[in-house]
Amino acid sequence: RAPNFGGGSVTIPLKLDVMELLDHVDPAARTIGAVNTIVPTPTADGKTILTGYNTDWQGMTIALQFAGAEGNNGVLKEAAMVIGGGGTARAAIYALHKMGYSPIYLVGRNTSKLQKLADSFDASCNIEVLSDTEQVSKLSPDRHPVVAIGTIPGDSPIDPAMRETLCSLFEAGNNPCDIPGPDDKAKVLLEMAYKPRVTSLMQLAENSGWKTVPGLEALVGQGVHQFKHWTDITPLHDFSRRAVLGDEA
């Protein structure tokens, strides 16, 4: 609360612990259960009010939109998928819900943990836990996921049973009876793990024709929103991408 404190960026493992030290927490951050941005506001009596925000979900949204995933605003809803059940998965669910995707499938190793995660969100999020290929095979074509966010470690092998379920989901929309049209959009996976550059999850998705997006793209977007919170200035997204991604931008 020092007079020269201009704001803060909070990283793991402090995103939850810092919340109890703040005066206000934004509703989105409260739902997600994590704060990654602290904004100080001076008051007339010389005090400082600290407000916590979460821009991780906004970074995910920007990265997906930049890759062509527009979300749903109409009557016809498209399905999405979140891989993993940790803290990042909460932000991913929130992002996909805000983009209008429904249902949102959860896939991971611990089904009971995933169910608790699903139950912690409002029923309007329409979250379903998928634990095996049999469940995937029963999905109707209009309920196959078209966008996904990976939140599992990128440097660890994927659990064999989970891998089988993921392969089924990535392949689910590749029905040979479907005739692709010129306006068909590519299915998009946003991989939140930064390393390695191409993870096992990305490879699975690419093998099924999905477009993959590295997690650094989401880092760009969340940083753009952080900068706006601190300065009330919105930086150019392209400039921010070049600053973070360098030659890969």
TrEMBL record:
Gene3D superfamilies: Leucine Dehydrogenase, chain A, domain 1, NAD(P)-binding Rossmann-like Domain. One of its GO terms (molecular function) is shikimate 3-dehydrogenase (NADP+) activity. SUPFAM superfamilies: Aminoacid dehydrogenase-like, N-terminal domain (SSF53223), NAD(P)-binding Rossmann-fold domains (SSF51735). Residues 1-38 form the Shikimate dehydrogenase substrate binding N-terminal domain. It comes from the Eukaryota. Residues 215-235 form the SDH C-terminal domain. One of its GO terms (biological process) is shikimate metabolic process. This is AROM pentafunctional protein, ARO1. It comes from Aureobasidium melanogenum (Aureobasidium pullulans var. melanogenum). The lineage of its organism: Eukaryota, Fungi, Dikarya, Ascomycota, Pezizomycotina.
